[in-house]
Amino acid sequence: MPIYHKLGKLPTKRHTQFEKPDGGLYYEELFGTVGFEGMSSLLYHLHRPTQVKQVGESKDITPKVAVDRNMKARKLIGFQVPPADDFLESRVPLLVNTDLIFGLAAPRKSLRDYFYKNADADELLFIHKGSGVLRTMLGNISFEYGDYLIIPRGMIYQIDFATEDNRLLYLESHHPIYTPKKYRNWFGQLLEHSPYCERDYKLPEQLETYNEKGDFLLKIKKQGYLHELMYGYHPFDVVGYDGYNYPWGFSIHNFEPITGRVHQPPPVHLTFETSAFVVCSFCPRLYDYHPKAVPAPYNHSNIDSDEVLYYVDGDFMSRNDIAQGHITLHPGGIPHGPHPGAMERSLGKTRTDELAVMVDTFRPLMLTEEALKLDDGKYYLSWLSKNEAIN
Ligand SMILES: [Fe+2]
């Protein structure tokens, strides 16, 4: 997505005859988004990519909503999501609306038995624990702790994990996930004030190309269902491609925080954006350096967005009783802010080592049945002073 990229072999001119060494032609495919207006790549297959042998079962995996009108601050204990062997079955959707699914997963096994494609949504995987290789039809990306992986819709992929101890945050976005417009010039290049640049991207490498005939199961997510289609050739049969539509990665550890003399607002942490939500990275950084600065954030009213924070690592100074893997949801419409004592505690502090991912959605989020199982049930009372607490 972010820059022009090519792998493998290509004909010198697009849409012309591209001959195989042993006769015949490679099969060209335009893999594009937003009709023919968005980003696209041109792929060259060994076989026609259309050879469906069988259409099997379709399974409804629509998240089960338990609370559709939420006006309560929540804390979810994310590491209570149980591990599961299968990559897709390990996914637990927690917060949803018509624009996205926000969930956690603790997959134990590499995905090797079938191939997967999300036809509904761009996917963002954030690697909290674990390492491995994202294997796609357009090349592989090695990942480790702290990586964001952006997988555009329609991408066929598998995933290898180095161990069984993995924790992921995942988003499924019905809107394309882009780098923030404010960081780009008119040509798309990231500007000098951007907290990251093109050099930080993890681009796909090592194109795996298989010339194999057989039965290849592809599970495709579309309209909340998982459909099973059997293909006659290995889905990784691309010999080359170029363009802008491909998976890519970016490490949160390469995000260079923007700091100031007084408290900087959350948009300085902006990392990715869509037309329906933003993703921000809160990274280790120096605190505000005005002599009278208050490093803890001020109370704020996110009047027209729901705010979700996923705590990754470090010390979360503005919050009491927060640990790794916790999620807080601050619903739009009511203010939130530092916990009792946090503002005072922050005075004189010079730096923070907090690491967190924030997702702000422009439409309210609904909680799933699984989310309620992780809910601590009392977070909404946590801003009361101890002697005011009612339980
Ligand atoms: Fe906030």
Automatic annotation (TrEMBL):
Quote the Pfam families the UniProt record gives: HgmA_N (PF20510)
Q: Which UniProt keywords apply?
A: Dioxygenase, Iron, Metal-binding, Oxidoreductase
The UniProt entry, under InterPro entries, shows: HgmA_N, Homogentis_dOase, RmlC_Cupin_sf
- The record lists homogentisate as bound by H336
User: What are the positions of the active site?
Assistant: H263
Ranges for domain Homogentisate 1,2-dioxygenase N-terminal: 108-250
Q: Which residues bind Fe cation?
A: H300, D306, H336
Q: What top-level branch of life does the organism fall under?
A: Bacteria
Annotated GO biological processes are:
L-phenylalanine catabolic process; tyrosine metabolic process
* Keyword Translocase applies: no
- Enzyme class, one word? oxidoreductase
One GO cellular component from the entry? cytoplasm
Q: Which cofactor does it need?
A: Fe cation
What molecular function does GO assign, one term? homogentisate 1,2-dioxygenase activity
**Enzyme Commission designation:** 1.13.11.5
PANTHER family in the cross-refs: HOMOGENTISATE 1,2-DIOXYGENASE
Name this polypeptide is given: Homogentisate 1,2-dioxygenase
